[in-house]
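Handout, page 2. Input:
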Amino acid sequence: MPAIHTLGPRETDSYLAAQGLTDEDPLYQHFSIQLHHDFSSIYENLDNYHGDYFLVPVGYQGPAGDTWTSQHYAHWQELIIKKTWSTKTMEMLLVENTEQSNSKSVSHRTTKTLLQEFAEQNDLPVQIDYVPAKPLAADAFLSGNYQYAIFSQNAEKKLQQHHRILARFQPEMIWCLYQIKS
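Output:
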C-alpha cells in the first residue's frame, strides 16, 4: 500500500491535510500516512520512497534557506505533481510569557514574518530560534525559556495564567501532493 510522507507530529497542519486527503478523496483513501521530523529528511531520502507520495505546503521554508520552489526545481525529475488544493491552516497564536523578559522567541520559519511584524509594530527587539514544526514551537515556549512564540491553536489548552495571547492568525495554505517516481 502506498504511503503519503509528510511532516509530523499529528498536531501539524501537514498531518491534518494528509488525513483530510485520505478521508475525502477516494483515490487516496487506503494510503497510510508516514510522519517525518522535517521535510528536509524526506527530500534527502526520496530514493527510499519510490512509488509513494509526498505532501508538502507551498509555504515550505527549510533550515538551509531552501523553499518549496527551490526544492520543486531541484527534484523535478523525481516528483510528479498529482494534486494541489488550498485549506485554511489551523488557527495560530502569537503568545507572550509575561514572566519572561529576554526577548527570545521561538517559531517555525514559515511564521517568522508574523513574529517580525509584531516586533516591528511594537518596537521590540526579538531573537528568533527556529524549530521544524509549530508543535515544537509550542513545546519550547511552554518550557519557560521564551518570551514570545507562534504556534497552532491546538496547544492553547496548555497555556498558563502568565501566558497571554497577543494575536490570532488563520491564513490559507496551498498543498502539493507529489508522487515519487519509481
